[in-house]
Design a protein that fits this description.
Number of domains of chain B: 1
Number of strands of chain B: 0
Strand content of chain B: under 5%
Largest sheet of chain B: none
Number of domains of chain A: 1
Number of helices of chain A: 14
Order of helices and strands of chain B: HHHHHHHHH
Shape of chain A: elongated
Distance between the termini of chain B: 37 Å
Number of strands of chain A: 0
Oligomer: heterodimer
Order of helices and strands of chain A: HHHHHHHHHHHHHH
Helix content of chain B: over 70%
Distance between the termini of chain A: 32 Å
Strand content of chain A: under 5%
Structural class of chain B: mainly alpha
Largest sheet of chain A: none
Shape of chain B: elongated
Helix content of chain A: over 70%
Number of helices of chain B: 9
Radius of gyration of chain A: 22 Å
Structural class of chain A: mainly alpha
């Protein structure tokens, strides 16, 4: 194995991003789904609770331990700055761009091709970072959760009727491995494209976040589907069908492709002179 | 000549911050209005300026207002916009400086605290300009483009509204500065990305804590004690964090 591949695989930013996403999801669920209140803070001697303490606790827990509450309460804060978890694994690419692709420029046979290949690799890793965390999170949650709704919304429209209520775990696996991977991929690709233009880490982190928030604003202000990125982030609670959910992501990927191609051209010119 | 040039640059920076504040304020007002209009059609109660502000800054009292519900996924979108832009501005002063500049500063000062002051720049003034331009934009927008069906407030209530906005503005400045100091500590130890991530997670932690505590306000818009509780706690946090930064914050140049 090449040494650069080893360095790329042993990427501490990837683990940091995955750990923070997992922690953010689980801590938010702990407090926002009233789990903490039911377990620790609730007063079971209150006059309106007729059941004894353990039975009341079980009854309350039954009402919150379902898939809809689980995903909804854990995503409540994360949805506002979702792209950052895909952008963080891409930060080493900007280091690489400043050193490996400058000092080793004359050793590549095809400079642009190599740059594009590593860009794509980092973008896929950014998508995987989000996708893997969600798969692990749902897998940990699956033994305790049941589906209470018969139909979760538009994203299940490609699946057969009643699939969600029969196999909720498989539905969430499908969601984590398709739409969340696509969102992570698009934002990581955007960060790669930005890092081809600028040296500053701050811009690589901040610009995707600004684009996410600004484009969402425009989407909701003018009610225009290709701008509603947060609709794809909340794929578990949407009115749009499976195909329509991918429209904002495809729109983003198109912009990113243009950005990356221009950036690679610019790098190529700088190296050539 | 050099001093004039530096002052000019600072002025340009403040104007930029004010423009960002005005833009973010207008965006927040626009989306807040769209959101509240959906609830107004079926409602019996007459809405006033406080209701729109409750949506933009978010409040603790979920049972009082029908337009605030925990299950609404876009509930935190507007508050996060304000706080996120705030911490980006507060931290931009030191996160945008290249490492070589820090070496340069270190080689030319006598005390560590002096170097810290140079590296932090004038983030305090920038935060103040941003927050107050945001708040003033909101007040101005609410005066001129008051949505249809909103109650026109009495004079006494109007001045109460300005008092609330001003006090919340002071609390917001202090809160942004606290998060900025925490980000600076992260920046010293781990570098830019870690610091950025830490700042965003700090907002989440502050929101989570504030939602759990009743009777004490940190960063939400709950005028129980006229925001004096948030101002006091944030001032205390700010002084503690400043002291900690001057004790432990030494920038490691290898990161």
């Amino acid at each position: 194995m090449k040494k650069i591949t080893k360095i790329r695989l042993n990427n501490s930013y990837f683990y940091l991003s995955a750990a923070v996403l997992f922690l953010a999801l689980s801590i938010t669920w702990f407090f926002e789904s009233n789990f903490a209140e039911i377990m620790f803070f609730m007063d079971y001697n209150a006059p309106d609770i007729t059941l004894p303490e353990t039975e009341a606790k079980i009854a309350f827990l039954d009402s919150i331990l379902n898939w809809e509450m689980f995903i909804d309460s854990s995503m409540r804060y994360v949805v506002n700055f979702f792209p950052i978890f895909a952008v963080l694994p891409v930060i080493p690419f900007s280091f690489e761009r400043k050193s490996y692709f400058v000092f080793g420029a004359n050793r590549f046979q095809h400079y642009s091709k190599e740059l594009l290949k590593s860009t794509l690799g980092y973008a896929i890793r950014g998508g995987l970072c989000i996708s893997i965390v969600f798969i692990i999170y749902f897998t940990i949650g699956s033994p305790f959760m049941i589906a209470t709704l018969s139909d979760i919304g538009g994203f299940a429209s490609v699946l057969p009727q009643g699939f969600y209520s029969l196999h909720p775990y498989l539905f969430f696996m499908f969601m984590a491995s398709t739409i969340y991977f696509a969102i992570g991929f698009s934002f990581a690709l955007m960060a790669c494209g930005i890092s081809l233009f600028t040296d500053k880490e701050y811009f690589i982190l901040a610009i995707p976040l600004m684009i996410y928030v600004g484009v969402c604003f425009l989407g909701y202000g003018f009610d225009f589907l290709p701008f509603k990125i947060s609709e794809s982030v909340c794929a578990f609670n949407t009115m749009y069908s499976t195909g329509e959910i991918f429209v904002p992501v495809i729109f983003l990927i198109l912009i990113d492709t243009v950005l990356v191609i221009l950036g690679v051209k610019k790098r190529r010119n700088i190296v050539d002179c | 000549m050099l001093i004039v040039n530096l002052r000019y640059k600072k002025f340009i920076k403040y104007v930029g911050m004010a423009i960002i504040g005005i833009l973010v304020g207008m965006l927040a007002f626009w989306l807040g209005t769209i959101k509240i209009m959906n609830y107004m059609e079926g409602s019996v109660r007459v809405y006033n300026k406080f209701d729109l502000i409750n949506i933009i800054f978010l409040t603790d009292e979920f049972s009082k207002f029908e337009y605030l519900s925990r299950s609404d996924i876009s509930l935190f979108f507007l508050p996060f916009l304000f706080w996120g832009a705030g911490i980006m501005i507060a931290s931009s002063e030191f996160l945008l400086k290249p490492r070589s500049y820090i070496t340069y500063v270190y080689s030319r000062v006598n005390k560590k605290s002096q170097a810290m002051r140079y590296i932090k720049g004038d983030s305090i003034m920038m935060t103040i300009v941003y927050v107050f331009s945001f708040v003033l934009t909101l007040c101005w927008c609410l005066d001129i483009f008051l949505p249809k069906g909103f109650e026109i407030m009495q004079r006494a209530q109007e001045s109460m509204f300005f008092l609330h906005m001003g006090l919340h503005g002071i609390a917001a400045v202090l809160a942004v500065l606290v998060i900025g100091e925490i980000m600076f500590l992260f920046y010293c130890k781990r570098g830019v990305s870690f610091s950025f991530m830490g700042g965003i997670m700090m907002i989440v932690v502050l929101f989570l804590v504030d939602m759990q505590i009743t009777g004490w306000n940190l960063i939400l818009f709950t005028p129980l004690y006229y925001f004096l509780d948030s101002i006091c706690s944030m001032l205390l946090c700010y002084l503690v964090m400043r002291k900690m930064n001057s004790l432990f914050g030494k920038i490691e140049l290898s990161v």
